[in-house]
Amino acid sequence: MAVSRKKGFTLIELLVVISVIALLLSILMPSLRKVQRHAKTVVCQSRLKQWGMIFVMYADDYDGYLLEGWYEGCDNSGVWPFVVWPWREDNPKLSYCPMAKKPIDSGGRVPFAAWGTQDSRFYGSYGINSWALNPPGDIVSTEGHLTRNNWRRVDVKGASKVPLLLDSQWVDGWPEDIDEPLSVEDQNWRDCGDATLSNMRRFSVNRHDENVNTLLLDSSIKKTGIKELWKLKWHRSYNTNGVWTLNGGVQPNSWPEWMAGFKEF
Questions:
Q1: C-alpha–C-alpha distance, residues 21 and 23, integer Å
Q2: Closest by alpha carbon to 66, among 144, 162, 145?
Q3: Which range of residues forms the domain containing residue 56?
Q4: pLDDT in tens, 169-195
Q5: Is 202 exposed, middle or buried (0-12, 13-18, 19+ CB in 10 A)?
Q6: Is residue 30 one of the residues assigned to a domain?
Q7: Which of 199, 220, 252, 256 is deepest in the core (most CB within 10 A)?
Q8: What letter does residue 18 receive in the DSSP assignment?
Q9: What are the two backbone dihedrals, phi and then psi, of residue 112, each rounded to the nearest 5 degrees?
């Protein structure tokens, strides 16, 4: 009686199967990467939402006022990560966007780089709008920025237009409507000359597909277009129709090449 033999794949059939699998992977990988980026964006927004609750709890303890923040003449203990430490329940992951976990001093690359020293209180990849904070009354200015323009409280009129905490290259900043954008996407804001003139560059980081995750002063979360940063109400005298906005007459060729195709505002 003849013994039946199972027929296996031929070499050609095996190569065809491998080619089909490789083709499917090449089609699926961009979609998988997009899904992964979206998931990290959602986590980032969730962390900012938790920060919103922390700042509200702080303000509730201080009659509606926000923390003093850093100003010229104080020590680093006034920087917001140190001040709000007791309210954050010792959750180190809150400090950073999942797209930017590695500090720049440890090899992190802009825009996907954190600031500070990992595993310390001074570490993260979010920056605070220092115009929202409440410096002492005798502090007239910090780095040339007049404190009379500070918001100071969480319950101000138009709080839904005021940024509080955002994706950032640095721990804080005082943006002005005349501030210029980064020259290239991976530029370190410290390499932009006078630090007092490059505050918007700290926040214009492209981590979320042309957007910056933003916690607003009313505790809402907004996905802000990078060019839209110039339309937010950073401080009381900030011109939301400044030279980098459509109403202010900005031209498409005014933007650096890496931002040229981004949505205008």
A1: 5
A2: 162
A3: 15-259
A4: 999 999 999 999 999 999 999 887 776
A5: buried
A6: yes
A7: 199
A8: H
A9: -95, 60
What is 99-135 written as a DSSP string? T--SBGGGT-BTTB-BEE-TTSSSEESEEEEGGGS--
Tokens of 234: 């950073």
DSSP assignment of 42-95 equals HHHHHHHHHHHHHHHHHHHHTTTBPP----TTS-GGGSHHHHTGGGTTT-GGGG
Q: Say which amino acid occupies 117.
A: T
Specify the range with the lowest mean pLDDT, choosing from 16-20, 142-146, 253-257.
Answer: 16-20
DSSP E strand stretches across the chain: 115-116, 123-124, 126-129, 141-142, 145-146, 163-167, 172-173, 211-216, 221-225
Which residues, 6+ apart, have CB-to-CB distance to 93 below 8 Å? 47
Tokens of 99: 């797209």
**Residue 47 near residue 94 (C-beta atoms within 8 A):** yes
| Structure tokens given for 119 | 């595993």
Mean pLDDT (the chain) is 89
Total of domains in the chain: 1
Neighbouring-strand partners of residue 222? 214
Q: Give CA–CA dist 108/65, Å, rounded.
A: 35
From first CA to last CA, the distance across the chain in angstroms is 83
Q: Read off the tokens for 257.
A: 């090449």
